[in-house]
Amino acid sequence: MRTKIKSKGFFLSVLLLAITIMSCGEEGKDSSENKLVASNANIPVTLEMEAELTSPPNVPRSVGRRKAKKLIVNMEVLEEEGEMADGVSYVYWTFGGSVPGSFIRTRVGDEVEFHLKNHPNNKLPHNIDLHAATGPGGGAASSFVAPGHETQFSFKVLSPGLYVYHCATAPVGMHIGNGMYGLILVEPEGGLPQVDKEYYIMQGDFYTSGENGDKGLQTFNMEKAIEEDADYVVFNGKVGSTTGDNAITAEVGDRVRLFVGNGGPNLVSSFHVIGEIFDVVRVEGGSMINENVQTTIIPSGGAAIVEFMVDVPGTYILVDHSIFRAFNKGALGMLKVTGEENKKIYSGTQKESVYQPEIKGDKADMAMNTKKVEKEAPLKNRAERIAAGKAVYAQTCFACHQANGQGVPNAFPPLAESDYLNADVDRAIGIVLNGNKGKITVNEKEYNGIMTPQNLNDEDTANVLTYVYDSWGNSKRDVTPDMVKKKRSSH
Ligand SMILES: [Cu+2]
Fold it and tell me: CB of 212 within 8 A of CB of 382?
């Protein structure tokens, strides 16, 4: 559609429009949009300035009322080793040293003079395709650059919206899969409405030589990438980029705007913030506005702008609601909101009491039967108890502490080789029985989360802890139902 604008057809339609404004109605929305974009091509630029570039989660200052300018973008490609997850490293290919790459903020009518510099220490040639640019390859054809070289091209920014840029050098999927993507925002004349907080979040999927959690330096795995079998799905390039101390923040009453992109290379994101409703979504980063949205879809190579007011303090979790990606592959971030409670909007737990419905008829028999079975076959030997504990773990603890007890950085502490666990068995029993909140330090890292009571009986509690102590380099000690019973009654 946009190429049409620049063709003769466009001039013809302008001519027609000049002759009769009535024709506008017949040609419909398409032509009025074309007219707008075409007139953006004629916005004059006067001064020149260097673009402010920021790494995630930050964004440059808004354009506000500034006039269109010649905007000079100096972007450096860096191939650098970074951390994918705790103890897992990866050689990222980046625009500007971060994944996603530096955020570029422009307005319609800007004439972007793009300088792409390929650092001499890099090993490969790269280029850039900006979805905000109109022209062959979005700039890719003009920006191919070898290590130790710089290329320059320029483009006129025609259409407002939030756009992805990425490397388009063959094999394209590999360059994108190694982190070569970012966002470029084109604000309309006069800028987007002012908000209190703005952040830059971009999802990406990664395919590594080892499995998720395998330590050490990981390399790109082409077969898994082709199968779309991601080991990591993350926000801002790594597991935990936006959790714990790295969480983005706001205060009660703030209006928050998230510029959310998806670099892919493969997966479509179902972007959701747990505990919030998006007041406004600029769908696919374009001009269409949707309101009161729970989850918005962000295609690979696409973006969305979401906005919401934060009314109640607390931690809001950003996820790809394809939820195993969030809890098992890393697509999880946090927005921490501080300020006054508002009990009218959210009460917190008002009451907690025992719920024990009367069991009648068949169900009662069944319940008694199970009890009988439990009594008839007590698990005496250690191997049996560990096996039973493993099953409890898979049902109850796994979601937070993860399959191999490795936890989730800044969110859920590890149970594997946990100094905290091994130091005090009585305390560990207490945590499983009663939950835990407040700051604790596990293996020199601080956690400040909430573990709820697990509602397990003495037997299951003993078994799961015996399993945990027996696994992943822990101290191998036994936890018996009697120990649990004693702890329970001492409470
Ligand atoms: Cu590249």
Answer: no
Give 312 Cα–ligand 1 centroid separation in angstroms.
42
Distance 259 CA to ligand 1 centre (A): 23
Q: How far apart are CA 114 and CA 135, in angstroms?
A: 14
Distance CA 439, CA 339 (A): 20
170 alpha carbon to ligand 1 midpoint, in Å?
Answer: 8
96-117 pLDDT tens trace: 999 999 999 999 999 999 999 9
The more confident residue out of 306 and 490 is 306
Distance (angstroms) between ligand 1 centre and the Cα of 401 equals 36
Strand-pair category, 48-50 with 70-85 = parallel
CB–CB of 107/188 below 8 Å?
yes
Mean pLDDT across the stretch 66-78? 97
Distance (angstroms) between ligand 1 centre and the Cα of 360 equals 67
**Which of 105, 98, 97 is closest to 50 using CA atoms?**
105
| DSSP per position, 160-216 | -EEEEEE--PSSHHHHHHTT-EEEEEEEPTT-SPP-SEEEEEEEEEE-BSS-TT--E
- Ligand 1 centre and the CA of 258: distance in Å? 26
CA of 169 to the centre of ligand 1 (A): 5
Interatomic CA distance for residues 15 and 381, integer angstroms:
90
Q: Is the peptide bond before 299 cis (omega within 30 degrees of 0)?
A: no
Tell how far the Cα of 1 is from the centroid of ligand 1, in angstroms: 28
Mean pLDDT of the chain: 89
State the Cα–Cα distance between residues 363 and 186, nearest whole angstrom: 63
| pTM exceeds 0.90 | no
Token pair in block for residue 412? 């859920």
Q: HEC states along 398-457?
A: HHHHCCCCCCECCCECCCCCCHHHHHCHHHHHHHHHHCEECCEEECCEEECCEECCCCCC
Task: Note the pLDDT of residue 49.
Answer: 97
CA distance 396 to 96: 42
Burial class of residue 347 (count of CB atoms within 10 Å of its CB; 0-12, 13-18, 19+): exposed
Q: Would you state the pLDDT for residue 335?
A: 97
Host H or E run for residue 234: strand 232-235
Distance between alpha carbon 456 and the CA centroid of its chain, in Å? Answer: 33
* Residue 222 CB contacts under 8 Å (≥ 6 apart), including other chains: 171, 174, 207
Taking residues 369-395, report their average pLDDT.
73
